[in-house]
Specification:
The chain is mostly helical and 160 residues long. The chain contains 5 helices and 3 strands; from the N terminus they run αβαβαααβ.
Length: 160
């Protein structure tokens, strides 16, 4: 079980930081009657991940905050959506592989293989794949997509 200050720190880094950024850009977006806000969260907002209580809680709060904002800002031509990335070839994934290998005594290749076994696409995402979805959500073509949490996870999540 995490200490209370772990929750406070995570809320500050994710929810409060997001609110601060929105407050900084919102006047310009309202003046333009156009804007896009995309939060990169986690699939844990739909399927909590075991042993990640702080992360699951904070990311769920960010998703709820974004849904609230999406309804408040839509009349101003501003959309708010969430991207829920799956395993993506980044430095963060490298660290997860290393940490899990150390914790289990398995090789990083074995850890990666176990993770990939849960992904129907059978591979990790390239950073350009969630990046392309973000670019679309920020485009005029996505003007009617608002308040969604979109998984880009190769089919790993089992929920609808």
């Amino acid at each position: 079980m995490a200490a209370a200050d772990a929750f406070t720190d995570a809320f500050n880094r994710h929810l409060i930081a997001g609110q601060t950024m929105v407050q900084a850009v919102l006047p310009g977006m309202r003046a333009a009657h156009w804007g896009r806000i995309v939060n990169i969260i986690s699939t844990s907002v739909k399927e909590p991940i075991a042993n990640l209580g702080v992360s699951n809680t904070v990311r769920g709060a960010v998703a709820s905050w974004a849904k609230t904002l999406s309804r408040e800002l839509a009349p101003h031509g501003i959309t708010v959506n969430n991207l829920l990335p799956g395993y993506t070839e980044t430095g963060r994934l490298e660290q997860i592989l290393k940490d899990r290998a150390q914790a289990t005594g398995k090789s990083e290749d074995d850890v990666a293989a176990a993770m990939l076994a849960t992904v129907p696409a059978g591979r990790f995402a390239k950073p350009s794949e969630p990046g392309g979805v973000i670019a679309f959500l920020c485009s005029p073509a996505a003007a009617y997509i608002n308040g969604v949490s979109l998984a880009v996870d190769g089919g790993r999540m089992q929920s609808i």
